[in-house]
Amino acid sequence: MSSAETSTSPARGRIVWVLLCVGAVLASCGDAGSGDSDALVMYTTVTQETVDAVVAAFQEANPDGEIEVFRAPTGEVTARIAAELRNGELGADILWLTDPLSIQQYEADGLLRQWTPEEAESVPAEYRTETFFGTRILNMVIIAGEGEQVSDWSGLPDLGSVAIPDPSFAGSAFGALAYFALDPAYGLDFYRDLRSNGAVQVNSPGDVVSGVAEGIYRAGMTLDFSARAAIADGSPVQLIWPESGGIAIYSPIAIVDSSGSALAEDFVNLVLSAEGQSAIAATGWQPIRSDVSWEHGGPQVTVNWSRAFDRQEELLDDYRSLFES
After folding, report:
1. Which of 273, 290, 161 is nearest to 214 (CA)?
2. Residues 6+ away with beta carbon under 8 Å from 245
3. CB distance 199 to 157 below 8 Å
4. Under CATH, domain 138-247+301-323 is a member of which superfamily?
5. Dihedral of the CA atoms 3, 8, 11, 12 (nearest 10)?
6. Which CATH architecture has domain 10-136+251-294?
7. What is the pLDDT of residues 159-215, one digit of tens each?
8. Domain coordinates of the chain in residue numbers?
């Protein structure tokens, strides 16, 4: 799986440029950040197949536009944005990221456009702000080897050899960290117990899947998308939906306030439309809209995002003291 969220090796975490030009040959594409009204530059951590599906739908409605996509893991997209801001200007028109913690600081810094998409009301209130809007739900669940017996998060530490994704690398893992750290039933003690019993940090949710499938780990935390794909490929693993709930993490999209692209709002409206949401669901992700069919899943718990926004660095520092010391 080629995915910023589910990459199965560190090599796949390197920066990948995908240039998609609509109605023009590759050489005629405008430069990033050029501000051409018929050009659009997007930075994203979303899986390639999903990006391709949504872009294809957008192309049909905008045959004369140009779209340039930079896709990479959360940490690399964040680093690129930081470097560009240090040099004076962000080169993207749109940010489509994995989790709200990855985008909230840009809102706080006034970098995102405040506006109301045509389909804003189709996004549940808890999954949108005045500048960014949920596009799909990523569910963090348990993956385990065949025959392993575990029914909920609280049972993971008892398994000893468990893999967890790095919240500094994967946005979905950052969301899971926020949920556990801020829930009084778990707190940082949950990670402390995992670590003391032999849990190991790996890069991404996809690396968790690979490690469990290869028998290196008995179980781990991963995305339901990744677990389902592995099972479909014949991997000897099982997806266990936690009894207390999979951790629902919404993937936000936003327009950079300095964008000069006339296509930016059209693209976001397409992503939030029933058509765009159906394209997202067809690539294996839970749509944000309740009126788009989705057959997978189980009970869900959500992150207290408002509290998490204010404690991002603290949470990461506390985590690193356990797993990177």
Report:
1. 161
2. 298, 299, 300, 301
3. yes
4. Periplasmic binding protein-like II (3.40.190.10)
5. -10
6. 3-Layer(aba) Sandwich (3.40)
7. 999 999 999 888 889 899 999 999 999 999 999 999 999 999 999 999 999 999 999
8. 10-136+251-294, 138-247+301-323
